[in-house]
Design a protein that fits this description.
By secondary structure, the chain is mainly alpha-helical. It is built from two helices and two strands. It starts with a helix and ends in a 15-residue tail after the last helix.
Amino acid sequence: MTLDGLKSRHDALLAARYGGMRSVSYDGKTVTYGSDPELAAAIADVERRVAAVEKPGARVMRPYSVKDL
């Protein structure tokens, strides 16, 4: 999924939660969450995905040396 798609899904989830609704519609689909914690978990998941797309994993540098014989 693209960054724009993730952000639009995030906005839809937040609007539903702040509006007191448990049903969210995006991309022609409607999802109904059973409780507020499920909706909060969906929001957290989308936020993690956005963060992963915006900031790729840290680069790991591993120094090594070679002894000349």
